[in-house]
Design brief:
This protein has 2 domains: 154 residues, HAD superfamily/HAD-like (Rossmann fold, 3-Layer(aba) Sandwich); 104 residues, Hypothetical Protein, Haloacid Dehalogenase-like Hydrolase, Chain: A, domain 2, CATH 3.30.1240.10. The protein is an alpha/beta fold. The termini are far apart. The longest helix is centred in the middle third of the chain and has 14 residues. It has an 8-stranded mixed β-sheet with strand order 5-4-3-2-1-12-13-14. A 6-stranded mixed β-sheet has the order 8-7-6-9-11-10, with helices on one face. This is Cof-type HAD-IIB family hydrolase. InterPro entries: Cof (IPR000150), HAD-like_sf (IPR036412), HAD-SF_hydro_IIB (IPR006379), HAD_sf (IPR023214). It comes from Streptomyces triticirhizae.
Length: 288
């Protein structure tokens, strides 16, 4: 009989100290499938804040979609929205604190490149005041578009909404596989923008060069004097991946995208089973 030795890999190192900051994605991570915060998760967030840990929600959502966590602001209430394009004060009517906009010229270059590489792509423009979309773009369920028009008009210089910065360009395709669409976008538009995704459909979220959840969170932590090693982050989709790998300890949800699970050493339970809360409860047992 031939024996094969299978190496025993060590468990990934867990934090030895209580974190100074917890950064959590919302959809598919902190929120359950019905878009609510469970009682256990709410209690864990409150306990973390009471223990002196900053809790920051870091999401692809626009500021106007943050009501889901409005009852769970136990600290300063600052959130990072739009995949890092906006920092908002949730305690002050989601007032914009900082904006990292996508330049109009970059957005137009992305539109033209994707139209060539993936015919049939339709677009929407997420501005600080709301969303604008092309006629063929899937209608939004959360709120209606402010304007429906061809994307070149929506991005035209001197248009009605020129004073409202563009946070994200959204690109949708009816037939391409979501990951294939993302790969194509990164290959063809990477010089002008950052492309990622968080939807199960072929829907891309396109931000300014260098803008991601990770880079905006890093800026906030640097200003607060918090080292990445003292940050714990949670996420589930490709738009969380940079944040999970930047943080000293990044946890992928058990329901996460396969690429996120493969790239992170730490995993926790699903969003339905309060995976974030389970981990926070353990973190609170650590010394400061």
């Amino acid at each position: 009989m031939c024996w094969v030795t299978v190496p025993v890999l060590p468990e990934p190192a867990t934090p030895s100290l209580r974190p100074q900051l917890i950064a959590s994605d919302l959809d598919g991570t902190l929120l359950r499938h019905d878009k609510t915060v469970s009682p256990r998760t709410a209690a864990a967030l409150a306990a973390a804040t009471a223990a002196g840990i900053r809790v920051v929600f870091v999401t692809g959502r626009p500021a106007r979609w943050m009501e889901v966590v409005s009852e769970h602001l136990h600290g300063e209430g600052v959130a990072i929205c739009g995949n890092g394009a906006a920092v908002v004060d949730l305690r002050n009517d989601a007032r914009l604190i900082e904006v990292r906009p996508l330049p109009r010229e970059n957005a137009l270059a992305v539109v033209h490149a994707l139209r060539t590489a993936a015919p049939g792509t339709t677009f929407a423009v997420e501005r600080t005041i709301g969303i604008h979309q092309e006629p063929g773009y899937p209608p939004m369920t959360m709120d209606p578009a402010i304007e429906v028009a061809p994307v070149d008009k929506l991005l035209a210089e001197g248009d009605t909404y020129r004073g409202a910065p563009v946070l994200k360009l959204l690109a949708h395709h009816d037939t391409l596989a979501p990951d294939a669409f993302l790969t194509l976008a990164r290959e063809t538009t990477g010089r002008w923008a950052e492309s990622t995704r968080s939807s199960p459909s072929a829907l891309l979220e396109i931000s300014a060069p260098g803008v991601s959840k990770a880079t905006t969170l890093a800026l906030r932590c640097e200003r607060a004097g918090i080292d990445p090693s003292r940050v714990v982050a949670f996420g589930d989709m490709p738009n969380d991946l940079e944040m999970l790998t930047w943080a000293g300890t990044g946890y992928a949800m058990a329901n996460a995208h396969p690429a996120v699970l493969a790239a992170t050493a730490h995993h926790t339970d699903t969003n339905e089973n309060d995976g974030v809360a389970q981990t926070i409860e353990r973190l609170l047992l650590l010394p400061t």
